[in-house]
Every structure is written in structure tokens, then in C-alpha cells.
Design goal:
- With 116 residues, the chain is mostly beta strands.
- The chain has one helix and six strands.
- It has a six-stranded antiparallel beta barrel.
- The chain is globular.
Length: 116
Amino acid sequence: MEYRRRVPRQHVGWLGQYIVEAEPGSGWTDCEVVDISVLGVGLELFGSHTTDLVGQRLVVEVRTPVGTSISIRMVGDVRNMGPGRMGGARVGMEFVGLTETERSILDTLALMQVAW
């Protein structure tokens, strides 16, 4: 059966850090935001999280590339997990708790087909 996404994703390749919300003492660990959509992000997580994170809430912080001073914080629930392309764990994270303004910004960017 062919898998089809609910909404298109845009490749971004942003480096960042993440933390498992239920394990705040574990500290921040490196990750890459592989792609993004209006519903969530695809991440490759590096470090020691080898357990199944499906259902866990992650907090992800990235600084956008090209020398800008914009930092983005994303919170979401892990919906799927598998092996990553660079030796980490590949997860799909669905956004949770977006404000009306944040949702509106994501929707507008999608309508404009902005290359994140």
C-alpha cells in the first residue's frame, strides 16, 4: 500500500537540540529538523534515546541558518519512530498546543508555498 502524507512537507535541514519533556534531567541532545509542515516536523535524533519515544512529548529548539538570530521552539508528540539516515532515530512529531497566532502563521506560509 502506498503511504501518502496528510499535508506536504518542506525539507529544511536545521540543526538543533531536543529534550524529552518527561525526562527534563536528561539534558538537551542534538537533533536535525529534517522537514516541516503545518502539522509537524520530521526529526533525526542523536544521542542515547534508543527506547521507543512514540507518544512522548518533545521540546525542540533550533536556530535558523544563514546567520540570522531567529530561534524557534517547537513542542509536539512523537507519532512514529524508526532508524535515521545518519545513525540516529528518525521520528515524526505532531505539533501540540499551538496558539491561534502560531497556527495562522503556519497556514499562511503553507498557502504562500514559502521555502522554509
